[in-house]
Amino acid sequence: MTKTAKAAPDRRRFLTASLAAAAAASVAAPSVVKAQGPITMRWQSTWPARDIFHEYANDFAKKVNDMTGGDLRIEVLPAGAVVPAFGLLDAVSRGTLDGGHGVLVYHYGKQTALALWGSGPGFAMDANMLLSWHKYGGGKELLAKLYASIGANVVSFPYGPMPTQPLGWFKKPITKIEDLQGLKYRTVGISIDVFTAMGVAVNALPGGEIVSAMDRGLLDAAEFNNASSDRVLGFADVSKICMLQSYHQNAEQFEIMFNKARYDALPEKMRAIIDNAVEAASSDMSWKAVDRYSTDYAELQAKDRVRFFRTPDAVLKRQLEVYDEVVAKKAAENPLFKEILESQIAFARRATKWEQDTVVGRRMAYDHYFGARGVHRRA
Fold first, then answer.
1. CB–CB of 281/58 below 8 Å?
2. Element (H, E) at 185
3. Fewer CB within a 10 Å sphere, N or C end of the chain?
């Protein structure tokens, strides 16, 4: 046997061993990555666990957890589990929490311009139109600028358009502006200033504390948000009168918030999933709201014997007048408030003109089908 012939089997054995080692390494590599485990985040909402709003927070977390295949796992705790509801921004900014679910007006004390994301008439926009301004009309950039101005280390995603909120729960129907004067009333955001100017004694409380305050006589009246939240939180136990329709929170939405350092450290693919999960959750929330709110609205009347009344036009008109006075004053004091205000007005002027000219009123159709002589009225 020649020296060359003897070397051939040796080379084959070497190559075979090398390929086997490479294959073993390729199989082992994923197991090393998997062994590191998923990225976990601890969140808190600003809502009691029984509120549908906390359910919305969990809905978003589930979408992210599912869309990442469990590689990112968000756990959502209810209000008060780590910090009080109004302490969410500070906790997320400091990194005490990785993120949270709430509303921008809960941070009103940090920067009054935050109230322009939902605490007011929206210049005739509804909440979905305000979200359109946020995404396409410059609001997103202005919100980032606003948070930077107060040193908040957060990434914020407004989402989830809310229907118009009731004026609230009262001991007797509100028939004129004077009926509000002197009442101890709960609200939040720039509505604090509006109702104070209308002669109301305002107390800002988180959702989970309102009913007990009314029960103890610390409040005469209060607003929160919707039929489902109000019902489960027990408003019907302390009042049987609810005034529907108001401009004080006509165009509000929720806020999903991440600690900026934690968010920026995520892989690009996960950040893209979060961006898209926000929009998916926004749609799902608005659809769920129609189903659940309408059901609980009927139940509040049929089972809880609540009487609903429409807020008088005189009260609505006065809200608009006072709101204009309040925002003019704040714009004069706060350049960023003024910049955001002007951006919203410019967008609303165009968007609401299109809507008012284009979208048919639905009251005629409702009366045709379900009114006193409607073709599908109850027998």
1. no
2. strand 184-186
3. C
